[in-house]
Design goal:
Blueprint lengths: L1 H10 L17 E2 L5 H5 L9 E13 L2 E12 L1 E4 L7 H10 L6 E4 L3 E7 L5 E8 L2 E6 L14 E3 L6 E3 L7 E6 L5 H4 L10 E6 L13 E3 L6 H4 L3 E2 L4 E2 L3 E2 L20 H7 L7 H10 L9 H17 L4
Parallel strand pairs: 1-14, 2-13
Antiparallel strand pairs: 2-3, 3-6, 4-5, 6-7, 7-8, 9-10, 11-12, 15-16
Length: 319
């Protein structure tokens, strides 16, 4: 998709401007319209599916090697966010008592597809997918062949709206997901012991009967648009039964707030989430340094992950 890079570069430059952010206020939210109920009852013809695009520039530091990168970020906007398609019975019962599994909260904007190019050559480098509580990184041609038509194929999970890269041999399947971002060992298959937050996404077969190809529009927003920068909720601040505030059922912050501050640089984000399920060192470091949001230090993990990514590139003779 290198031809997109040139058009993006003419119009977009990413700037972190703290003064442009909408500041957090207790109890405040921007009331996104339509509501999940209205969106669920609307006809497909009334919807204009749109990606909001931005380009980010960053440098991947791999010891003595530096790789300049362009991240073409495509952010879809869903009027509601559902939960994973397969929940254990007691979770499904609890959800039914307080809300809807298909429209759990207003506005879903933190899922994103980043097409990653080398900035010096505009050659494809990989894909970074943002999912609700984690990310996934893929390198080309290390992990998947780059499509001849430059169209990276992505399947969107039923209900949860999570993006998944379509790899060779892809068929409809259920895959692990987590509600707690610290349950990484289960997410990536390092352990089979399911945590309390576990569930399963249903990922459709793009060539099967259960999937529909969606033609998306591409649009750009001002750099300080609240959809990106808002620090108050975008969508209803949900109070179940009128008095119990449920953060997970309330709308999200702006699209910029889809990772922890220590990984706001996209090259670091891509390196961190290039996870090998058999890498015991990674999961040991994660257990030691990612206990909670109050006990979080990604620096030693990031150092390890950069070295792993460098080794993988060198195995394929890539700089």
């Amino acid at each position: 998709m290198s031809h997109y890079a040139n058009s993006f570069l003419k119009d977009v430059q990413h700037i972190h401007d703290a003064e442009s952010l909408i500041r957090p206020q207790i109890g405040w939210f921007l009331d996104y319209q339509p509501t999940p109920e209205e969106a669920l009852s609307s006809s497909p013809g009334s919807v204009k599916p749109t990606f909001f695009g931005r380009i980010y520039q960053d440098t991947l530091e791999l010891g003595t090697t530096s790789i300049p990168l362009l991240f073409l970020k495509y952010s879809p906007v869903y009027p509601y966010s559902g939960l994973p398609a397969r929940l254990v019975w007691w979770k499904a019962l609890g959800v039914a008592m307080i809300g809807s599994q298909q429209g759990f909260h207003e506005l879903d904007i933190h899922g994103a597809i980043h097409v990653v190019l080398r900035a010096d050559t505009l050659e494809p480098f990989g894909v970074l997918l943002a999912q609700h509580n984690h990310h996934r990184s893929y390198l080309t041609p290390v992990d998947f062949p780059w499509p001849a038509d430059n169209r990276v194929r992505v399947a969107v999970a039923a209900m949860s709206n999570e993006p998944y890269l379509i790899l060779p041999g892809h068929t409809e399947h259920y895959t692990r997901t987590i509600g707690n971002p610290f349950d990484l060992a289960y997410l990536f298959g390092h352990t089979d012991e399911p945590p309390t937050s576990s569930a399963f996404d249903r990922v459709p077969d793009p060539d099967g009967d259960s999937a529909v190809e969606v033609v998306m529009n591409l649009d750009l927003l001002p750099l300080d648009d609240p959809l990106y920068t808002s620090q108050i909720l975008l969508g209803e601040r949900k109070e179940t039964w009128g008095f119990w505030y449920v953060r997970e059922m309330s709308g999200p912050l702006g699209m910029d707030f889809y990772t922890i501050p220590a990984l706001k640089n996209l090259a670091d984000l891509m390196a961190f989430w290039y996870v090998d399920p058999d890498d015991e060192t990674f999961f040991k470091l994660a257990r030691e340094h990612m206990r909670s949001f109050q006990e979080l230090n990604v620096a030693p993990i990031l150092t390890h992950q950069r070295a792993r990514l460098r080794d993988r590139l060198e195995m394929f003779g890539l700089p």
